[in-house]
Structure formats: structure tokens, C-alpha cells
Amino acid sequence: EAQVTQNPRYLITVTGKKLTVTCSQNMNHEYMSWYRQDPGLGLRQIYYSMNVEVTDKGDVPEGYKVSRKEKRNFPLILESPSPNQTSLYFCASSWGRTTDTQYFGPGTRLTVL
Amino acid sequence: EDKVVQSPLSLVVHEGDTVTLNCSYEVTNFRSLLWYKQEKKAPTFLFMLTSSGIEKKSGRLSSILDKKELFSILNITATQTGDSAIYLCALTSGTYKYIFGTGTRLKVLA
Predict the structure, then answer these.
(1) Does the pLDDT value for residue A98 go beyond 60?
(2) Which residues of chain A have a CB within 8 Å of the CB of B34?
(3) For A3, phi and psi rounded to 5 degrees?
(4) Continuous segment of H or E residues that includes residue A76
């Protein structure tokens, strides 16, 4: 089944404790992206990747890192999480240059205390 | 600055009504406009529009883009309770960034 998976689905952590949210897709998509969704602010793009080893900042990259060492995986790293990073996070993927239709993962609800 | 504005912010209708959701935008280098439906979980894709005046249809849902006036509409006819969701409009530009609007929350009453 074609899908985007994220882990963990729920996470409660404390300020400053490094964490990684994994994202994997099995559709051989070139383009992958991370979003955060907050009430009243909608979905905002954090980082995106056009292909392996190619990443770029979205609108809200501060406090986040990403890497794209393999085509299927695009982890989101919070080196020193803070309470303002409490949010619902979505990973998404698409073919990229040929079509912009994105497929979203199930979401990760992160709470930083 | 690229921008997407959706209206109304929320809408309550009765089953069988027709609704029109609006999405206006500003963008430097337009690639496409997309509509998504979000129920309790992840957004699911509805339509991608790239050309003006060509209506896309899927069942009771349809959408059209006006690149001259910089807006798109999403129509839902004969609404059902299962149409209750947040409808998201997103824009892509030449930089391959995605800009989402804040969404329209639709509630359909039985």
C-alpha cells in the first residue's frame, strides 16, 4: 500500500531534550516536506527536500533540522525543543517537478513541557 | 510575499445545501493551486489546478481557478454530513514551497 509513515504518533517531552521524528514513504517520491499545524495559523512549511542531499527552508525553519540521506526517509530533528514547538507535525511527499499533489503522513502530536 | 486567504473562516449549512468556498492568493511565480480536505487526521487531496477556467470535478465537488483575478472556488453540491471538515487551499510557486491558507471549517447539519 502506498503510504507515508511517521513515528512516533504522539510524544511528550521536556525542554532541551533532543528528539527525532521519522518520516518514510514507499512511493519513490522525489519531494518530501515537513509542516506544523497550529490553531488559527493553518499548515506552515518547515523544510522541504527536492531529492537526496537537497534540502531547503520553508517558512518556519527556526529550531528544526532535517536530512535526506536516502530517497525514502526525511527525519525532522529538534536539537533543543522548546514549548513553542508544541504542535501537530505532518510529513508529506510528492513526485515533485511533474506534479504538486502531496500525500500526507498521519501526523505526530508533539508536546514540549 | 506569497499569500493565501480563504473565506469564510467557518460555515454551517444543512444537508442538501450547496456551498462555495473561496481562496484568493498572491504569488510571485505561480505553479499550481491545490485543495485538500482535512477531517480529524491528515489532509487528503481533492484537486490540483494549474489553468484558468477549466473546471475540475469529482462527484459533488468541483473547483475552478481564475488566474487573472487570482482566486479559486470549491463548490460542494447536495452537501452531506460526511462533508463536514476543514477545507484547505494551498499554493505552490517556482521555489517549490507550499503556502497554505488557514482553511474553511464546514459543518453540515443533518
Answers:
(1) no
(2) 100-102
(3) -160, 165
(4) strand A76-78
Q: What is the pLDDT of residue A101?
A: 83
Specify the 3-state DSSP secondary structure of A104: strand
The Cα B33–Cα B71 span in angstroms is: 9
Whole-angstrom distance, CA of residue B57 vs CA of residue B88 = 17
pLDDT digits (tens, 9 = 90+) for A36-71: 999 888 899 999 999 999 999 999 999 999 999 999
Q: Are A37 and A90 in contact (CB under 8 A)?
A: yes
Q: For B41, which residue in chain A has the nearest alpha carbon?
A: A106
What is the Cα–Cα distance from B23 to A49, expressed in whole angstroms? 26
Whole-number Å distance between alpha carbons of A74 and A72: 7
B68 φ, ψ (degrees, to nearest 5): -80, -45
User: For chains A and B, what is the number of CB pairs under 8 angstroms?
Assistant: 56
Q: Which residues from chain B sit within 8 angstroms of residue A31, using beta carbons?
A: 96
